[in-house]
Amino acid sequence: MEPNHGDYVIVKAKEQGVQVIGLTRGHDTKFHHMEKLDKNEVLICQFTDHTSAIKVRGKATVMTKYGNIETTE
């Protein structure tokens, strides 16, 4: 089985305490990982065999190959 090397997403926090949550693949979607970012911290995330979605809580810039998204909380 070949590893799944999915797209990357970059999250830059615009305030203290931004949460980035990874959600699982499969029949039941569950939280499997969470990071809390301080203002101006950057997290690079990747979609994998285990991660099907990424949820962002708080004010942040989310950068993808499709463009940038500003969250507004």
Automatic annotation (TrEMBL):
InterPro entries: MtrB, Trp_RNA-bd_attenuator-like_dom, Trp_RNA-bd_attenuator_dom
Source organism superkingdom: Bacteria
SUPFAM superfamilies according to UniProt: TRAP-like
Coiled-coil region list: none
Domain Tryptophan RNA-binding attenuator protein: 5-71
Transmembrane parts of this sequence: none
Keyword field contains RNA-binding: yes
Annotated keywords: RNA-binding, Transcription, Transcription regulation
Pfam families linked to this entry: TrpBP (PF02081)
Protein's UniProt keywords contain Isomerase: no
Quaternary data: Oligomer of 11 identical subunits arranged in doughnut-like structure.
Family membership: Belongs to the MtrB family.
Name under which the protein is recorded: Transcription attenuation protein MtrB
